[in-house]
């Protein structure tokens, strides 16, 4: 059957080295602990260095460059989402949802390539923080932690070959299609009434993520260590990678819920001050800066 994946992957007029379309630990770019540690450390050094340099400088606008960055991530997320669904939906139809989430056979060569592309997207997304630094926007802990930790999460799941990974990635890609379009449009002056629902989408995403990954981890533990417990079948992948994913996604949910209430659910006293015109300028600046943390 001719498909989008066939057109994009099988008919390309050149052949890449195997380690660029299959994940080979230690050979594929950014596939070693040292390389990932250096990349993420460099990210932190760069953004805080920019922040220090920009302290006495005027903020840079960089509107066109920022819009291009967001167009690439929004459209790239949409394309990758379509490719992953094209591979996953027939698998669900033919073998069932549990097979698609947990079977070792669900880790197909194409899915592995898509996981690699998604992993490299996480390094491009680090540029979000570079733009924030150059624009002299606040660097929220949630933003910096989320960006760096998500690259690490994708790295661990590639190494652990957790077949359930696509459930988390598909939801994340869907959110990113909307989110990066939002940042593209608002950089050009567009106004949207639904900006707070981006955070709601992310919170919903993490709730679903946690249900799925905790279920998969339970299946694996029950199958391998407690066979007397009820389970359907084993869920393939490294136990350490699964545990790390559960812990990190749990922290994301807590941080994003806290962010939501800090940003959109103002205490009564703050609302009263804002109504009197005392805190309007401060509150607006704080809200605009905090919204960037959700990227």
TrEMBL record:
GO cellular component, one term: endoplasmic reticulum membrane
UniProt-listed InterPro entries: ELO_CS, ELO_fam
UniProt keywords, alphabetically: Fatty acid biosynthesis, Fatty acid metabolism, Lipid biosynthesis, Lipid metabolism, Membrane, Transferase, Transmembrane, Transmembrane helix
A Pfam family of this chain: ELO
Subcellular localization(s) per the UniProt record: Membrane
Catalytic activity: a very-long-chain acyl-CoA + malonyl-CoA + H(+) = a very-long-chain 3-oxoacyl-CoA + CO2 + CoA; an acyl-CoA + malonyl-CoA + H(+) = a 3-oxoacyl-CoA + CO2 + CoA
Protein name: Elongation of fatty acids protein
GO molecular function: fatty acid elongase activity
TM regions (residue ranges): 35-53, 65-85, 164-185, 197-217, 241-261
Family: Belongs to the ELO family.
Alphabetized PROSITE patterns for the sequence: ELO (PS01188)
UniProt EC number: 2.3.1.-
Lipid biosynthesis is among the record's keywords: yes
Family annotation (PANTHER family): ELONGATION OF FATTY ACIDS PROTEIN 1-RELATED, FATTY ACID ACYL TRANSFERASE-RELATED
Organism of derivation: Gymnopilus junonius (Spectacular rustgill mushroom)
GO biological process, one term: fatty acid elongation, monounsaturated fatty acid
Uppermost EC category: transferase
Membrane topology category: Multi-pass membrane protein
